[in-house]
Amino acid sequence: MLMKEDSYVSNGKENDGVILNLVNSEIPIFNDCWNKIGVMGDRSCSELAAVIHCYECPVYAAVGDSLLEREPPADYLENWIHILEETSTNPDISDSNEAIIRTAEAISVIIFQLGNEKLALPVRMLQEVTHPCIIQPLPHRSNELFLGLVNIRGETLLCASLQSLLHIESTKENVNNKPNQETNSTVKPTLQRMIVAGQGEDKWVFPVDEVHGIFRFHLNELQDAPVVITKSEEGYTKGIVYWEGKKVNYLDSDLLFYNLNHKIL
């Protein structure tokens, strides 16, 4: 990261209020507190309760503004030309978020978490990611799979539980985020979201425990799913990719939405 001598750098241990007061400062801010006390760190930041995710925090936005508005070095364009020239069009790697992929043979996915499982859906199916909304159950219709109706920006959509469909067990953290009295420690809270996914009028809302973001993988990285990967009989996993060294189940979106429509509608 480009750094100036008079830039402010956070060690992640200062008072959160002091950090927020520096947002409007004229000094360029290079404060990566999200890696220390935010969602990428120990999540001890007191602002997380209000903003839910560092992406919504003014500190995060201020860092982006200061980086985009800084003067680029004289050799900036030349260096990037060399980087792109040296980038392989057929990368053989197991962690593609560390590489630049410039090929049509790649897939963009949104990675999210349910329980202890990291899952991915193709970005083409993604409509929106939103904060948790009120789910209105339907009498004699709602169950573990079909949760009810959700109002998303004035549009009423069906809400379903991927956790139930894929037979993913809830973790203790999801069931109870209260302090542990025996160990006198607090479990990390999950940053729950709702994903709106589908195509055209066939849109569904899925509650998820956390959204990690959108990433791009080369098709060569997509590994075959093990025969026994979940307890789900339908086998919704199309393949396995690795992100930050962890396994991600790439879901078969066509099969998933087909079965949702037949099981619920």
Written account of the structure:
The protein is α+β, with helices and mostly antiparallel strands and 265 residues long. The chain has helices at 16-21, 48-51, 58-69, 76-86, 162-165, 172-175, 253-264; strands at 106-114, 117-122, 126-130, 135-136, 146-152, 155-160, 193-199, 202-208, 210-218, 237-243, 246-251. The chain contains 7 helices and 11 strands. The protein starts with 15 loop residues before the first helix and ends with a helix. It is globular, with a radius of gyration of 21 Å. 20% of the residues lie in helices and 27% in strands. The protein has a 6-stranded mixed beta sheet. β5 and β6 form a beta hairpin.
Concise account of the structure shown:
The chain has helices at 16-21, 48-51, 58-69, 76-86, 162-165, 172-175, 253-264; strands at 106-114, 117-122, 126-130, 135-136, 146-152, 155-160, 193-199, 202-208, 210-218, 237-243, 246-251. By secondary structure, the chain is α+β, with helices and mostly antiparallel strands.
**Can you give the helix content as a percent range?**
10-25%
Total strands: the figure is 11
Q: What is the H/E string? A: HHHHEEEEEEHHEEEEEH
Biggest sheet overview: 6 strands, mixed
Q: Any low-confidence stretches, pLDDT <50, length ≥5? A: 1-27, 87-101, 177-189
Q: For the largest sheet, list the strands in their spatial order.
A: 3-7-8-6-5-4
First-to-last CA distance: 51 Å
Helices, by number, come to 7
Using the CA coordinates, give the radius of gyration: 21 Å
The assigned structural class equals alpha+beta
Q: What best-fitting shape do the alpha-carbon axes yield?
A: globular
- Strand proportion, as a percent range, falls in 25-35%
Give the overall average pLDDT.
77
